[in-house]
Predict the structure.
Amino acid sequence: MSDSMQSLKNELVEQAGSMGAVDAKVASREMMEGPPSADPDYVLPGFQSVIAFAVPLGTDFIHDYFGKVTRMAFKKIMYEKYLLCMAISNALAARLQQEGFRSESLSPNGSYRPESGGTKPMEFLVPDFSLRYAAVASGLGAFGWSGNVMVEGHWSAVFLGSTITEAELPSDEPLDKKLCDDCRICTKVCPLEFVQRKETQTVTLGGREYTYSARSHHLRCLLGCGGLNGRSRDRKWSSWATVPYEYPETDDQLVEQYLRALNDPKAKYILPQLGLKKKDQRPEWVLAAGRRSRGVVYRSLENTNPTCCNCLLVCSGPKEKRQELMKLLHSSGVVIRLEDGTEKAVPSEKLKEA
Ligand code: SF4
Ligand code: SF4
């Protein structure tokens, strides 16, 4: 590897850091060999390297978010950090292009391939590129039990970003260190139980095997994290989702709830943030994002309304901190929407519906 490529890499890592990334690492073509969504050729045929970076979310807002006091602080953070990930990715791609290397920046979320990778309708959305796989393959972080990527010093409270390039940058090494202590608290804060407690799945990246929790049907997270159904199985607590659907026991119920939400007046506050309206009613940001593969980056601050991310945010400190957040989430009741559109957390015993 030439000195010039090493100094270009150093410059890129420094650039990412100066813009707010906690770290940036490089995975080579061989290190990215794995599942289809790990394949950067989909985005940039002939790629040679992926630069993966992470932006920390901070933790100040999490107590109020889990305590259902307010989600406004996270709204602003989510909006700004997604834009920051995009800005860093764009800056790295632009610098590489200056040197004559074809390079592509990537949206930090919400950009999916048009074809379905699942065997059942709406089972699985395949992203243009898996930022998680790049983060782990490059050694930026390691999988936690949740399947989220943990970055040293920040647990999993980060957003990930990547830039793909044909430049052959010097690569880093995957982490050998385990960052997850297997507390499994992430499985207890997922209202629709997408993150499994016992079952595992294994992925192979660059010849290395990684094992973490098996996931249920992906609509569980789409409904849960999307804000359409966030009520726990025992009905005693919720995320910030306010549509009062029953706990979906089966995959068929998941699909039914998703389709019901498209025409449900109770979901009217939620659908704009998801862009999940019927095709001819989709908001302009979804159409623009679809045309330019920029996912959430075209979403307005007004339409950015986080309702979950619980599995990501609970894992934001030592075990005692995680336990405290879990208890807070479970004891702070259920969020309902009042007739004037405002949200309010109430004790589950005070709710009329089961
Ligand atoms: S919450 Fe616990 S089990 Fe889950 S990813 Fe974090 S450390 Fe691992
Ligand atoms: S974001 Fe929420 S709904 Fe999705 S897996 Fe995590 S906890 Fe579950």
Summary: DSSP finds eleven helices and ten strands in the chain. The longest strand covers residues 195-205.
